[in-house]
Amino acid sequence: MTDSELINAYFEWMYQLVCDDFNKRLSFRKLLARLYDADFQYSLPMDENRETDGIRLRYRFGQECSYDDRIIATCLDNRPCSILEMMIALSLRCEEFIMIDSHYGNRTGQWFWNMISSLGLGGMTDEKFNRDYVTRVIENFNNRRYAADGQGSLFRVQRNDVDMRKLDIWYQMQAYLNDILEI
């Protein structure tokens, strides 16, 4: 298997994690490919954990698809964590460690698409894809140029007692979950 074949297999694996059970009629390949091409950059020290989770996603792929860790390290670890990897890893963490409930089934895709909507990218199907717009959204997200309520980031809240720009991504997610669960 060539490096490019492994990278493609990894992308397809990530795509199916968040797209197979969600909105099967529409394609978001261009959007997810752009998010995969974009490096995740952080300014708050605790967000390094999100980067680490994104890198670990590569090894989860390797384990689930029977690729040796050395192959993953050689072919996939030659670049920084992408925004797509970070978001999917965060969606999995949300589902598997916080919100798991067999009554509702696996909602990993739901958490992912809620983040996409909060970023303002929910309408970016392949037919409506606007690369310049997506690039601006990515730059604003990476530089924390979004509203205090989180509009333009991964999580938007209704509360006005918290400035989402000052919270690391994990605590933004906690504020969001508390908001939607009315805790």
Q: How would the blueprint of this fold be written?
A:
Layout: H1 3-19, H2 29-37, H3 48-64, H4 69-76, H5 83-98, H6 108-119, H7 131-142, H8 169-181
Helix pairs in contact: 3-4, 3-5, 5-6
What best-fitting shape do the alpha-carbon axes yield? globular
* Unreliable stretches: none
Mean pLDDT: 93
Biggest sheet overview? none
Structural class by helix and strand composition? mainly alpha
Q: Helix amount, in percent? A: 55-70%
How many individual β-strands? Answer: 0
One letter per element, helices H and strands E, the order comes to HHHHHHHH
Number of helices: 8
Beta-strand share of residues? under 5%
- Give the N-terminus to C-terminus distance in angstroms: 49 Å
**Alpha-carbon Rg, integer:** 16 Å
